[in-house]
Structures are given as C-alpha cells and as structure tokens.
Task: structure prediction
Amino acid sequence: MLLPAGYTEIGVVEDGPSGPITVARPPRGGSPVALVLVPRPYDPTLPVRLSGLKALRNRSIATLLDWAETDEGLVLAGELVDGVPLRALLDSTGLLPVEASLVVLRDSLLGAATANDAGLPRGDHRPETIMVTRKGEVRLLEVGLTTVARPPYLAPEVWEGGPATPASDVYAATAVLVECLGGGPPYGGGDDLGELRARHLHAPIPVERVPEALRSLVRHGLDKDPHERCAEARLLLLELAAVAGGGLGSGWERRGREQLAAAVRPLEFLFPPPRLLSGGPAGAGSLALRHGGSPTGPVTGVGGGQTSDLAPLTIPGATPTPTPSPSPTATPSLQPTPTPAPSPGPTPATPATPGPTAAPTPTPRLLPTITPAPSASATPTPGPLTATGVRKLAFQHCTPGPGGFVCPFTITFDWDDPGGTGGTIAWHLSGTVVSQTTGCARPVAFSVSETTSVPQEPAGPHSASISGSLVVSADPAGPAAQNPSTAKASLDSSGASVGPVPFYGGSTC
Result:
C-alpha cells in the first residue's frame, strides 16, 4: 500500500477483517495508527460518510482519525485497540457465558445507537468486526463503512432488497448474541445464499438456542417484520438492562467484562507484537480500524469500560440469582363488559345471536427504569411507594396473530419511592374495540385491573414503562385491521389517567 505523505510504516498485520493492516506513525508523531486501504472502485457515498464518522466519539467504537485519497483508493487511518477479534475468541471457546454475551450485545447496541444518532449505519456487524480488549471492553470496527451486514447477520428486509435501517443494525447485533450463546449464527452460514435467505425470511426464530429468560429479548431483536422488531438500538438496550438486572442481579456487567478479559488471556499470541506499538503503551495490541475502522460518537451514557448496573423492574422469565426481585402478578384477562366472550379459535364461528366477540387479553411485559432521578437528600425519608402519574399510553400497529389481532402497547408511569423500599403499582387499562358481530357499529367495552411489582430502587422519583399486548381473540384475523378503537390507562391510587388513545384493532369489517 502506498502510504499518504508523512506516514512511516512500522509493520503489517495480515489478519484484519477486510485485509492486511499497516501500522504506521502519523506525520506529527504520537501513537501508531492502523492504515487500511479501500481500493478503487469504492462506494461513491463513502467519502460523505467518512466526514460524519471522523466526528464521532464513543467508547464502544474505534475512532477514525483521518483519511486520504491515493491512486490505489482511500487510505483510512484509525486508532489501535488492545484486543482480539470476537471471531477468534469464539473459535477458541465455542460459547461465551451469559454475562459476557450480554456485554457484547450491550456495547454493540451503544455503538450502533451512536452511529444511528448521527444518521450513519452500523453496517457490517459480525464477530470479525468486533474487538474484545484485555479489560473485557468491546470495540466496534468498520462502523459506517458499509451500510449492511454480511449474509449470516443480514435482516430480512435487506434480503428482500429494501434499505438498511437502524432496525437492521438491531437484527445483526442480536444475531451475534445468538452466536455467542448458541455456537453459530441464528440460521447458519455456508455458501448457499438462496437457502440462507429462505431461512432468514421464513424459518422460526431459534429462541431455543438461548436461555429462556433471554428469549423475549431475542424475539424483539430478530423479528422478521422490521415494524415489529425494536426500531432502534436504544429500545433493545432498555429491555437488555431489565432482563440482565432482573435475571442476573446487580454486577452482571462487571462479571461479564471479567469473563471476557479472562477469555482473551490465552490468546496473547493473536495480539500484534509490542514492537509494532513502540509509540504506545507496552503490550498494547490489535487494530481498531480494520478496513477503515470506525469512528465514534458523542459519549452516550456509560462508556465502554465503565459499568452501569441499573436497577430495573422485573421481567417474567428472568430468574434472579444474586439479587432477587419481585415478579409482576399473573397476566390478567380482559373481558368485554356487555357479555362474556366466546373462547378464541382459529376458525371464526357465527354466533346464534348478535353480540360482542372481542376479548382483548393483555400480556404485560415490564421494561426497565428509563428516567431514574436522584433522591433529593442523601438520607432517604422512609415512606411507601406512590404512583404519581401516567405519562404516556402508546399503541403500535396491530397485526394478525394466533387467535386474533395482537395490538402491542406501552404505558409509562411515574412514581415516587421516598424510602427506596419498592412496592406495587395498581393500574387499569380500559376502552373499546370494534366487533365484526356487531357490524362494526357498536364498540365492545373492555376493562382490566393489573398490579405491577416494583423492586427496591434508590429513594426518589422514577419513571418506567410496562409493555404488553391486547389480543382481540374471538374475531377472525384478517390482513387489514383498520378499525378505530380506543383505550385509556389510569392509576388506582391517584386516579391519574391518560387517553382515550386511538388505535386500530378488532376484526376486519
């Protein structure tokens, strides 16, 4: 590779994700950098993305320092990272512990969120472009250099020719999680792209390859419909915090980093020799840029090497070990108020007499604390938990599902816990859905009472969301559920409420 003016070659590392990497001193001195050639012809939009990539700063992303055009193509200069590729680690260990795997996902999502905030894709997310440092930190390479992942990690909408979106980055990151825990990409690899495409588009999500407590997380990251998948990395980060905190207890991130650091120690021979890094810390190693390594973005939340043991709410299916947390109460059943609803069934039945048939059923799923506020005083004032308000009720698009239309919703509550002792929040969801039996002229009312357990939190005000679904179970599930329905969420303790909020549910009419 022809080096840009002023760079002095120190050596070459042959095994970068996208080809050899030249280690060089920059023109004005300082620590050695990694130089990677993107040969001609290259994506004409790449230089535009490079301008945005150079401005990013985030602990989860390796920094793009500079680039230059040469006769051969674009030469990209990036920082060096003391680490080895996740691919080498998986080849050595086969599988990773749960905490370590979740740290890989957490840092990957933080990096993706930073890039997406700047309007850039994460792009080629795979074990070869993820570095694990000696401290158990995760750094992303090649962020934004391409817009899509490789086939084993490629989202269904991109397989079908659609554009990559932040939801596509979520899909790729979740696919790598499955590989860390299950020994390979969700739908395998190989050279038969037609078969691989068919599996990504039509095969069931392989949740059986991950622990039961993580299966909901994987479903929300690998849903084949990008509109039903977590639309951006931060949404999956919220659920990750809740699952990990509820199922693994406090300190899971610290333990995960310790596991990663221990796992890379036997791979010392894979780190570049110290002679290539004479301008940097002794023993520092592997290359952060790789084929143009990645830039970074404004620091969002906790950096890659720090811990963030958030105190989440409890999620069903996550079994606490070190720090048990209360679980939410059993899933309630919504029943129409005019008359009892018939049992749901895949084949709609014609009732003998007109009557409501919609029987919504919520399946609440708690998300983590999203805006914890510090207590006003260093010494908590004892007192019971009090729900203070309902901030928001939102519905997503209803889709046909088993037994009827599934209408996902999220309710955001505020509460105050002066004593930091935890407690319960009692709430109602009520409203109306349309019914084919009534000719779509008379809405069917529903009402449900639910009590959600809140584990011990720091004293002070908090906010968190509860996510669930209304299943209209008795009407036929057709493809065009576009019937106006409404719902209202309210608190038992204060009477505070939000709504009615419109959504499209019920049967086809």
Summary: Confidence is low (pLDDT under 50) at residues 279-382, 474-482.
